[in-house]
Automatic annotation (TrEMBL):
HAMAP family: PQQ_syn_PqqC (MF_00654)
Catalytic activity, as annotated: 6-(2-amino-2-carboxyethyl)-7,8-dioxo-1,2,3,4,7,8-hexahydroquinoline-2,4-dicarboxylate + 3 O2 = pyrroloquinoline quinone + 2 H2O2 + 2 H2O + H(+)
Protein EC: 1.3.3.11
Pathway linked to the protein: Cofactor biosynthesis; pyrroloquinoline quinone biosynthesis
Organism encoding this protein: Hansschlegelia plantiphila
UniProt cross-references to SUPFAM superfamilies, sorted A to Z: Heme oxygenase-like (SSF48613)
Role played: Ring cyclization and eight-electron oxidation of 3a-(2-amino-2-carboxyethyl)-4,5-dioxo-4,5,6,7,8,9-hexahydroquinoline-7,9-dicarboxylic-acid to PQQ.
Source taxon at top rank: Bacteria
Protein name: Pyrroloquinoline-quinone synthase
An annotated GO BP: pyrroloquinoline quinone biosynthetic process
Keyword check for Oxidoreductase: yes
UniProt cross-references to InterPro entries, sorted A to Z: Haem_Oase-like_multi-hlx, PqqC, PqqC-like, Thiaminase-2/PQQC
Keyword terms, alphabetized: Oxidoreductase, PQQ biosynthesis
Amino acid sequence: MPDLLTSEELEAKLREVGAERYHHRHPFQIRLQSGQCSRGEVEAWALNRYLYQACIPRKDAAILSRMDDVALRREWRQRIVDHDGDHDGDGGIARWLKLTDDLGLDREAVMSGRLALPATKFAVTAYLTFVREQSLLAAVASSLTELFSPSVIQVRTAGMLAHYDYVTPATLAYFTRRPIQAKRDSDCALAFVKAHARTPEQQQDVVAALEFKCAMLWSMLDALEHAYVYAKPAPGAFEPADLGERLAAA
């Protein structure tokens, strides 16, 4: 039986998971931020990632519906507003669509999700299923990837602006607000986890939940790397204009 960790030890363990498993270490992520991606790869990343962005308020609504504490619900519901906005054209999802619009992608096709890779669809569905079926504690813990996102966003944004002349600060408007929002959200989730993981088993569940979320994000990049760097996308998935040129050169 593992020992019960102190709250400080539990936080350190969670941060260790992020250091080892968060997608800042994924080869595709490194390609993206260092200017090594073709335009088609950037387009494929933005289109597929939209499916994850669009699921976030649904994920948070599922978590919110399971909370008994009124104060916690008030705090958590801000996440939904951040992504859905208060009106049309507002919120994180709208700002992500600004990114896909600027890349020349058809908005209806992006929003429909029909061109996303099968693995992207499976990953997003798995995440929604996880937060609905696992314990509330595990569902909250799965959101703790936000502990690590601010530094990744900073590196990604700087790299994309430096290396892709078709990307502007307005294109990347989604990332402008996310570091502050992610810090607020991760502070809330971390406090909840540290207060409610009171047994070794619960602490193990919390760590496993964060490992699951890291694996889910990693798997999405695995799929992008396979489809758009080394092989070709699945039938019916997005095919960038430069796909034929890349396959011919391979």
